Amino acid sequence: MRAGSFLTSFALANAHVGQLPSRLHASSQLRMAPGVVRSASKRARMVAPVDSRFVTGDVGNNVTPYIANLVGRNLHRIDSHPLGIIKDKIENYFNSLEGQSFEIVDDLDPLVRAQECFDDLLIPLDHPGRKMGDTYYVSRAGGREQSSPDDMLMRTHTSAHQSTLMREGKTAFLCTGDVYRRDEIDASHFPVFHQMEGVKLFDPELVGGAMSKEEWLASPGCELIAADLKKTLEGLVDELFGPVEKQWRDDYFPFTEPSFELDIYYNGDWMEVLGCGVVHSNVLSNVGLEDRHGWAFGLGLERLAMVLFKIPDIRLFWSDDKRFTSQFKAGDITEFKPYSKFPPCLKDIAFWIPDNFEPNDFFEAGREVCGELVEKMELIDEFTNPKLGKTSHCYRITYRSMERTVTNEEINAMQEKLRVRASDLGVELR
Ligand code: DAH
Fold it and tell me: How far is ligand 1, taken at its centre, from the CA of residue 275, in Å?
């Protein structure tokens, strides 16, 4: 997730650190044009699961079959996959450091309670990240409008496991997993991506125990933890990128105080790498650890892997094309060699939007109808007709396969389905 955007929206979050669709779009709508051959696993991913625990059809359930089919791929646990390679490198780095060893946690269920994903982390009930427009809910007690700690959702960040793992008594851990966010569609945003969370608690003898928040924030213990955090993460980026120029910026996260973000200068650009901070005293007291202190960080694996392996499109991580998968070897960061890029097919769609129009609903429809064939959905024109009192949006959709040339007929058929799905969202096609 894009750390800096935490307060306002999850939108830019995706490659960093990361719709009420109708439920009727099962296999018939997703069937490929005649003559199109797909690999078995790709075909499987295009078909709605019959009884997914993520897709219930109840009010407040906005997980689509497309998303449900991506759960359990565990790309981060494949040691010859770029995401697995980065994960291993980071884990090895942390466990080469002197002191506490970090427990590796990488197999937790992505379906969590809002309590874990938000409340435990002091994220308020009205935070934008809790909206149905931003997050995939399996059940939502308060319906679309109201958020509650009992909601069940696809974790939007791996921080969702911090409190649970600390409650279990873990004091140093690295927790990696797939995270889910409803978002825009382009080369660096995919609704599922991967994050790693790191937490380290310190010996109270060294940093102090229970004290008031003001005392804590002004204490040498708090300073020591922030310094250890920064030194540790600087070492991590040097390990991954070689010695690079770095810049720390103050940031805000509800669950850390103080909070920081680390940027590095790499390949001629400043790039945001991670968010982190000193764990908020209330997060610790909520798990019964009022006498403990520590640090936490979160980073996005795709963002790192795209830069380090020079992978140009986030959809490639999900590819089971041998030309992709066979390029990588456990333990090695190697430059991705692009195979021919197939030509895109562009289509525009224009409509009058209803008052409560949620662009993420439309993007979700794009994913649901077109799967990985949609590369980008971009708003290219917007205007309001004062006489009609209506606003029009025109989106340009880039269709492209990573694996073959798409045919105009199949894209026309998809575009037609997308138009139907868009009108289900209450827009008036133009
Ligand atoms: N969960 C945050 C995100 O998704 C990243 C993060 C920031 C994790 C600060 C942390 C932290 O543990 O301390 O953007």
Answer: 5
